[in-house]
Amino acid sequence: MLRIAVLVSGGGTNLQAIIDSIASGDITDTQIVGVISNNKNAYALTRAKDADIPAFVVSPKDYDNRELFNRALLDTVDSLDADLIVLAGFLVVIPEIMIDAYENRIINIHPSLIPSFCGTGYYGLKVHEAALSRGVKVVGATVHFVDKGTDTGPIIMQKAVQVENGDTPSILQRRVMEQAEWIIMPKAIDKIAHGKVKVVDGIAIVED
Length: 208
Ligand code: GRF
Description:
alpha/beta, 25% strand
């Protein structure tokens, strides 16, 4: 049984996709052992409670400095005894102590086809604004392992989504979620749960 901790900051639609995929059997041999939010008002916390999943708030506002917050975040994750940390819209830079402690055991969903529209400053609607400004015709989402760079870790899964005439950043964001994020995040977790993802020389190899 893969024990996953899901870290969130906002609406939690990716969390919901994981919860639903476990309920439907699209993800097997996996249990969400806790949801952690840096934001006490995140709707994702309600989704966790509705699904009877233990939910925790670790907010930087409650700590005197970043180091103490980072330590508390790591302690909370450690207390869940998780095999995998899933960043599902978590808007906090992951502390290096956590990356060292969970090497190739932290995954993130990014709403673009990495290496396009990723890195510092590319998050949320900004990603979709940049894609529309550049006039690309295909966008998408990426699930990747988290390393010490920003969106630079081994790529596990990607899915392309068509840009359509008249798209606004919000319309495109929604389509990328529906057609890519909510599909590949659960798939990647299921692959990891079944030992089908390995990292060799910095590249993720995913078995069929
Ligand atoms: C998603 O677009 C995800 O790709 C990004 O943050 C957003 C989170 O949405 N990293 P939600 O909280 O899962 O609804």
